C-alpha cells in the first residue's frame, strides 16, 4: 500500500516542489494551500504521477481546522504516514514598528500550526508504529537577522519542538527532523526582497548582493529540488535512526 503524506503549503513554492518529488516516488499526497486553483494543482499532479491526491484550504490560524485537515487526510487517503509542516509567512519590520497582529499571525502559522498538526497526526502514527515528521524551518531557525523578530522566533521554536517530538516519538518509530534552508527563490522570498529594499532604501539587486546572499559562502539560491530530495530521504523506511536532527541547506551560511 502506498504511503500517504500531508504537506502544508504545498500548492506553491517549496511545498509544491516537495509534493512533486513525493508523488513521483509513489506517495499519495494531501495538498494544502490557499491558491484559488489548489484543487486543480492537486488533481494535475495526481494524474501525472498516477497517485491519489486530496486538497484542503484549511485555515492554519484555527487549531480545530488543522485537526480536521489531518482527519481529512486519513479519511481520503487511508493513513497519514508522513507529515511535512511547510506552510509559512513572513513580515519584515523593525521591532518598534512591528504590528502586533502580524507577530501573532507569524507565530501561529509558522510555529503553532506545526504543533497542532503533529498532535493530530500522533495517534495515527503511534498506532501504526510508523511516522515521519519533517518540519521545514529555516537557516533563521539557527541564526538571526535584523527586522525578522517574529519569523526568527517561530523558526527557532520549530527546531526546539522538532527535538521534543523526536524524543517522544522514538519508542513508536516516529522520527522528527527539521530542514533549514537558506534563501530559496519562492513567492515568499520575492516579497522579502521588496520589503528589504524598502526597509534599507536599496534596489532589489542590491538587496540580493548586500543583504540576502552575503552570508552564504555559495552565492546562489537554494534549489527547491535539494530540499525535496532531503525530505524524501528523511521520510524513508530506513531513516529510523535519523531523528531530532537539523539539516542545513544554506550555502555555508551557518558554517561561519
UniProtKB/TrEMBL annotation:
Enzyme Commission number(s) from the entry: 1.1.1.30
PANTHER family attached to this UniProt entry: 3-OXOACYL-(ACYL-CARRIER-PROTEIN) REDUCTASE, 3-OXOACYL-[ACYL-CARRIER-PROTEIN] REDUCTASE FABG
Family to which the UniProt record says this protein belongs: Belongs to the short-chain dehydrogenases/reductases (SDR) family.
MF GO annotations: 3-hydroxybutyrate dehydrogenase activity
Keywords from the UniProt entry: Oxidoreductase
Name of the protein described by the UniProt record: 3-hydroxybutyrate dehydrogenase
Pfam hit, one: adh_short
Gene3D superfamilies, A to Z: NAD(P)-binding Rossmann-like Domain
Keyword Thylakoid among record annotations: no
InterPro entries given in the database record: 3-OHbutyrate_DH, NAD(P)-bd_dom_sf, Sc_DH/Rdtase_CS, SDR, SDR_fam
